[in-house]
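Q: I have 372 residues here and want to know how they pack in 3D. Can you give me a structure?
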Amino acid sequence: MSAERGVRIAVTGGAVHGDLVVPDGASGIVLFAHGSGSGRHSPRNGMVAASLNQRRFATLLMDLLTADGTVRTLTPDGPEADLFWATTGGMGLTGIVLRATLHLNHVETAYFLVDTDQVGDLDELMARQTADDESYVESVSWFDAVTTGRHLGRGLLTRANHATIGDLPKKLRKQPLKFDAPQLLTVPDVFPPGMLNRFTGKIFSELWYRKSPTRHGVVQNITQFLHPLDMFGEWNRGYGPHGFLQYQFVVPFGAEHVIHRTVELMTEAGHVSALNVLKRFGDGNPAPLSFPMPGWTLCVDLPVRKGLHELCEELDELVLDAGGRHYLAKESRATPEVIARGYPRLDEWRKVRAAVDPHSVFASDMSRRLFL
C-alpha cells in the first residue's frame, strides 16, 4: 500500500506541481526535478519512481521553473559544471535550488559517543586537536578568551563518533533514531546593553569550562553535542538589545599565530567573546566561493559596541595577510575589497553568475554591498 496525492509548492513567481507517493514504511524520500521536455508524466521517470517506491522510498516528481524561464539540471562534472560549482556556496545568487541529491552517511542511532578533554591553554589545545582528529567524525573546541596569563585559551576539546546501538544504554535502544530537542529554559528579554563584559564573561567562561571535565565515551544526543546552545531558547538575548557580531575566518596551516593574535587583539581592545569555536579544516571543494581550506577556522561572537568596527578592520588585515578569508554565510560588515582579496576566484564566479542572471534578478543586501 502507498499514499499518493498531488502537491503544490510555492516558489518565487508562481508554483510547481508534483505527485507525491509515500509507500507504507517509507524510510526516505527521493525528489525529482525535471525540465527541458522531461516532466513528472514521463513514462521513464514514472518507472524509476515506481522502482524506488517498491524499495520503500517516497518519491516526489516535480516540474521546475527558474527565474529566466529555463530549467537546468546540474551535476559536478556535467556540461554545466561551472554553474553547479558557482551555485555551491553561491549564496542563492545564481537561482533557486529546487532539488538536490545528497550523499549521506548511514548511522544506527541519533546519538554520538563523545570524548571531552579539558585543556590548559591555547597552545596545548591546538596541539591536542592536531594530534588525532582524523580518528573522529566530529571535532570542535571551545576556548576561554577572557582569562589572561598562562591560562589564556584554556578550553574544551570535544570530539565524537556516531554511536552504534550497542553503545547506547538499554533505555535508548528501543528507539535509537528518535530525536528530541528539548529546551531547558527560554532566556528572558531583560538584559541591558553591555551585559556581556569582562566580569560576566569571566563568570560564564569559568562555568562553561568547569561543566565539562575530561570524560571519554559519553553518549550524547544531537543537540547536546552539535547544538548545545539550542537547549536555551532565545539565548542571543543575553547580549542585550544591541546584539552581537559573529566574526569567522579561516587561515592556512602554518598561520597559527593569527589565532593567537586575534585573541590578544580582542583582549587588548577590551572586547569580550565568551563563545569561541575553533576547528580544523581539510580541503575545500572546486567551488569558486568555497570557504574551507586546509587550516584553522575560528568563530567569535562579539557584542556590538563602540570600537568593534575598528577591531574587525584590524582583524581583517591580519587574516588576509596570512592568506585567509572570511565566511560569507556569516559575513555582515566587510568591504568588497576584503572579500575580493580572500576569494581570488571571485571574478570567475561573477562571470558565471552574469551569464545565468544578467539582470541580477536574484540579489540580496550582501550582494549589493559587496558588488557581487
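Q: Anything worth noting?
A: The chain has a mean pLDDT of 84. The first strand starts at residue 2 and ends at 11.
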